[in-house]
Amino acid sequence: MINWRRLTEQDFPLLREWLRQPHVARWWNHETSAEAVERDFGAAARGEEPSEDLLVFLDDQPVGLVQRIRYGDYPDYRKELAPILDVPGAAVCIDYLIGDPRRTGIGLGPRVIGAIVEATWEDHPDSPSVVVPVSAANRASWRALEKAGLRRVAEGELDPDNPVDGRDHYIYLIDRPSVASS
Fold first, then answer.
1. Would residue 118 count as lying in a domain?
2. The model scores a pTM over 0.90
3. Helix (H) or strand (E) holding 58
4. Which of 59, 87, 110, 133 has its CA 20 to 30 A from that of 76?
5. pLDDT of res. 163
6. Which distant-in-sequence residues (6+ apart) come within 8 Å of 131 by Cβ?
7. What are phi and psi of 136, to 5 degrees?
């Protein structure tokens, strides 16, 4: 069973370990000192910023992290996307990682993404969609999005998370399911 809870400061040592894993470090490009993790994740863990950093569990074992934001809370990010895709402020974005390398390549990523997307409709009832930019070079990530039901709707140039990557990005989207009228 996949579930999650808010990341806490007590989780930072585990997060640091994950961020050091080569398969994570390649795409997340974060400093991994205790001070850097506190700087980058502390405000969200304390509820001082609007992003949701969620520690993901599989059968009660921590396996990954999902960051979930509303574009309206991060206007600069929304503005960066505007030339490629008009994103509503109420739309949600996710970023994700599977921390344990033994848990990669077995279909867990699409399951986590699918579960988070499903929960988003309840957690953010005004959100019309989930919109996820991903580096075109990160095939595993965009394939996981596709397997979770998101579709590629745009391509364009964005600043990469990792400076070694090019600016080419794919934009994936899934709309809130419509409620059938009875």
1. yes
2. yes
3. strand 52-58
4. 110
5. 85
6. 71, 81, 85, 87, 91, 92, 93, 171, 172, 173
7. -60, -25
